[in-house]
Design goal:
The chain is of the alpha+beta class. It is 40% helix and 22% strand. It contains 11 helices and 11 strands. It has a 5-stranded antiparallel β-sheet with strand order 3-10-5-8-11. A 4-stranded antiparallel β-sheet has the order 4-9-6-7, with no helix packed on it. A two-stranded antiparallel sheet has the order 1-2. Helix 5 runs antiparallel to helix 6. The model has no long low-confidence stretch (mean pLDDT 88).
Length: 305
C-alpha cells in the first residue's frame, strides 16, 4: 500500500507560485488533516474574478447556492453559463482557466490527488487514469458525496478519518466509471474476506479504537485496495468499515460506562471520541439516550452493569 498522501488544502498554481484557490484557505477547514489524498473546502463568496491559474490536482467544485451568470476562459475559449445549485466543474489536473462570477455563491471545492484514483483500484495496476474536463455539469451522485463529506467534517468526523476516506474512495471509483478518458469498469467482488484476513482487521480495530483508524490502514492490513477491501468487508460483516468502527466505539463506551471507576469523560475518550460534547452527541444519536442516562439506567442496586 502506498504511503499516505496529504494535501494542505485546495491549491492552484499562479505565475509559478502555489497558493490557495481563492487567495486563502477558509477558516475551519479540517479536511487536510483528516483524509488522505483529498482536500475539501467550503467558500461563501461575493461576485468574484478568479485570475488565470493551473490545477495541480484533479478539481471538483459544486455550487450549493447562487443562481448567477459566470464566464470561463480556458483553452482559448470563452464559455458562458448560469449557475444553479448543483452546478459542478470537473477538471483534470493540469487544466488552466480563469473565471468571472457576477454574483454571490456558496461552493464546495475539492482537490483530488491523482494517486487517490490509482490507490483506490490498485489491484488493476493501471496508470492511465485520467479524467475528462466538464463544465456546467449536473451530477446528483457527485453532489451527494461532496455534501456528505462536508457534513462529516461539520459533525467532527465521529468515526475518525475512515468515513471521509470511504466517501473519497467511493467518489474516486465513481469518477473513473463515469468520467475517465479511457472507459473503466471495476471488478465486482464476491465472497467476502478470507477468514484470516477478516480476523486480522477486526483484531486491529479492537486494539486501536482510541486511535484515528483510517481506511488506508485497514485495507493495508487486509492486503488489498480500499475499494476491494470495502466491498468484501461489508459482505463479511454486513456493515461498511466506518459503520463497524463507529459501532465498536459505542460498544467500548458502554463497557466503560458500566465501570464505576471510569468517568463519563474517560469512557468517551477511551472509545476514541475527540471530546465530551462530541461523544454525547453521537452516543445519543446511536443509542437513543445520553451517556449519563445510560449509566443511570444500567446501574443496579449493588453496583454497575
Amino acid at each position: 500500500m502506498a504511503d499516505r498522501i496529504t494535501l494542505p488544502g485546495v491549491n492552484v498554481v499562479r505565475e509559478g507560485r502555489t497558493e490557495p484557490f481563492l487567495g486563502s484557505h477558509p477558516a475551519g477547514s479540517r479536511s487536510a488533516v483528516h483524509w488522505a489524498g483529498i482536500a475539501l473546502e467550503r467558500y461563501t463568496v461575493p461576485a468574484v474574478f478568479v485570475p488565470r491559474h493551473e490545477h495541480p490536482e484533479h478539481f471538483l467544485s459544486v455550487v450549493l447556492s447562487g443562481t448567477v451568470k459566470y464566464e470561463i476562459n480556458t483553452n482559448g475559449q470563452n464559455l458562458r453559463f448560469t449557475s444553479q445549485p448543483g452546478t459542478i466543474f470537473l477538471l483534470p489536473r493540469g487544466t488552466v482557466d480563469q473565471n468571472n462570477w457576477t454574483g454571490p455563491t456558496e461552493r464546495l471545492v475539492v482537490a483530488i490527488h491523482p494517486r487517490l484514483l490509482t490507490n483506490a483500484l490498485d489491484e488493476t495496476h493501471r496508470t492511465d487514469l485520467e479524467l475528462t474536463e466538464r463544465w456546467d455539469l449536473i451530477d446528483e451522485h457527485i453532489s451527494a458525496l461532496l455534501k456528505e463529506m462536508a457534513a462529516d467534517l461539520d459533525d467532527g468526523s465521529p468515526a475518525g478519518s475512515i468515513y471521509g476516506e470511504s466517501l473519497a474512495n467511493a467518489l474516486g471509483v465513481y469518477l473513473l466509471k463515469r468520467y475517465a478518458v479511457r472507459r473503466f469498469i471495476p471488478v465486482a467482488y464476491k465472497g467476502g474476506l478470507p477468514g484470516y484476513r477478516l480476523k486480522r482487521v477486526l483484531d486491529y480495530i479492537a486494539a486501536s479504537l482510541e486511535e484515528n483508524i483510517s481506511l488506508a490502514q485497514l485495507s493495508a492490513i487486509a492486503g488489498m485496495s480500499p475499494h476491494y477491501f470495502s466491498e468484501l468487508f461489508k459482505q463479511s460483516t454486513g456493515r461498511t468499515p466506518h459503520t463497524y468502527v463507529l459501532l465498536q466505539r459505542i460498544e467500548r463506551a458502554k463497557q466503560r460506562l458500566c465501570d464505576p471507576k471510569s468517568s463519563i469523560i474517560d469512557a468517551g475518550l477511551d472509545a476514541g471520541f475527540e471530546n465530551p460534547s462530541h461523544f454525547a452527541r453521537v452516543f445519543r444519536r446511536l443509542v437513543g439516550t445520553t451517556p449519563s442516562k445510560f449509566r443511570a439506567e444500567h446501574t443496579i442496586q449493588r453496583g454497575f452493569c
